[in-house]
Amino acid sequence: MQLQRHKVNYPLTGAQVREIKQRMLNWANQFSILLFLDSNHYPSAYDGYECLLAVGATEVVGGHEHDLLAQLQQRHNANPDWLFGHICYDYKNVLEPKLESAHAAKTGFELLQFFVPQTVCYINKEQTFLTIESFEDTNAIYNAIIDVDLESVQKRIPHLQFTPVVDKADYLATIERLRTHIADGDCYEINYCTEGYCEGAEIDPLQVFNALNGLSPAPFAAYYRSGAQYMMCSSPERYLKKQGSKVLSQPIKGTARRDKDSETDAQIKNALRNDIKERAENVMIVDLVRNDLARCCETGSVQADELFGIYSFPQVHQMISTVSGTLKAALPFTEAIRYSFPMGSMTGAPKYKVMQLTDRYERSRRELYAGTVGYITPGGDFDFNVVIRSMFYNEDTRYLTYQTGGAITYDSVPEQEWDEMRLKAWALERIFA
């Protein structure tokens, strides 16, 4: 007999939301598996929750076996319930068996892993109530969250130095080699990433996430723990969302720095809006996403709902487009993931060729970076982010790492690409300065 979750709504006022989120996180940190997703009050027509938290695992689907997406679909079909988890970028090697990842894994995340949570807590979009769904006593959980001592868990973030895998001269030379591939017709656009790491790091991952989320609040922020593996994420980008029969993706291509002076900042934002190179990068990825979605959507339903939208975040302005389509009625919902993963904004075009090239030129395995975390609802809807602007930590080996990069086209100026990559890296490294 299938156990039923208890579900209770607890009223909130707007003034309580920030504190309740922190109490939820501190309470959750006792669990060996958890995922916290925070939209950080960003207004969006597509969001259903202000935040979600899943803790504990009554069941886990995942590992390094082939066709785990099919297993995930079978699990949901047999017992529709919440599922939270991740897909590593390197799952591409399962979807395209001729691809490979040449470098060693350092953080240890499974290729794909989803868990059925013991307890799910969420704050609704209107921020008027906290809902707790659990197999346990919801009132006891609510009281435990409310009773968390916020002062006792504060810890200092250490000063750490990060070692770049690629120095500036090598980075610039690689950009030139990638431009040669583009000139030769091998590809049109390629996302090139590089790693910074710290060995022997002793950190409190939750404190790092709190610092990152405080400095760089983003609409797809996430704190994730799976045993000894942690991710602290301040992503601004949605990979894929399904609501009913509609699926949509919101690729980001185009980045510009923020400025403290409002007039200068407005000029930078306007320059990004009109930048021919950035618009060309963006439209190439939009076309790629449209092609991906066309494989799983009804003929003629795929469209660009918004092109070249400019959105501002604490450190950067971003160019974001929205592409949507109607999922084919007879198709399992996981097929939308199968046909679109990994997301085009983190590969380039054409997708298969550039994934080969990034494995050749990048010096580190991407693992969960450029992958996704998110949730599937009991009704079969889902929402997944793009894992960027993130730190990854293995508590057993004390290995702390991040990756940053950008889209390379023939018009790319190597020095400017270096500056953009370092701007993204600085937003992470400064936490430990």
List keywords for this structure.
20 strands; alpha+beta; globular; single chain; 20-stranded antiparallel beta sheet; 433 residues
- Provide the β-strand percentage band: 25-35%
Number of helices: 11
Number of strands: 20
Helix content: 25-40%
Shape: globular
CATH superfamily: Anthranilate synthase
Domain unit count: 1
CATH architectural category? 4-Layer Sandwich
Overall pLDDT confidence:
94
Low-pLDDT regions = none
Structure class: alpha+beta
What does the secondary structure layout of this molecule look like, with pairings?
Blueprint: E1 6-11, H1 17-28, E2 33-38, E3 49-63, H2 68-78, E4 83-87, H3 92-95, E5 112-124, E6 129-134, H4 138-146, E7 163-164, H5 168-183, E8 189-198, H6 205-215, E9 220-226, E10 229-235, E11 238-243, E12 246-250, E13 252-257, H7 262-274, H8 276-294, E14 303-312, E15 316-326, H9 334-340, E16 348-349, H10 351-361, E17 372-376, E18 382-385, E19 390-394, E20 399-408, H11 414-429
What does this entry look like structurally?
By secondary structure, this protein is α+β, with helices and mostly antiparallel strands. It has one domain (6-432): Anthranilate synthase. Helix content is 30%, strand content 33%. It is built from eleven helices and 20 strands. It has helices spanning 17-28, 68-78, 92-95, 138-146, 168-183, 205-215, 262-274, 276-294, 334-340, 351-361, 414-429; strands spanning 6-11, 33-38, 49-63, 83-87, 112-124, 129-134, 163-164, 189-198, 220-226, 229-235, 238-243, 246-250, 252-257, 303-312, 316-326, 348-349, 372-376, 382-385, 390-394, 399-408. The chain has a 20-stranded antiparallel β-sheet that branches. The longest helix is centred in the middle third of the chain and has 19 residues, at 276-294. It is globular and about 60 Å long. It starts with 5 loop residues before the first strand and ends with a helix.
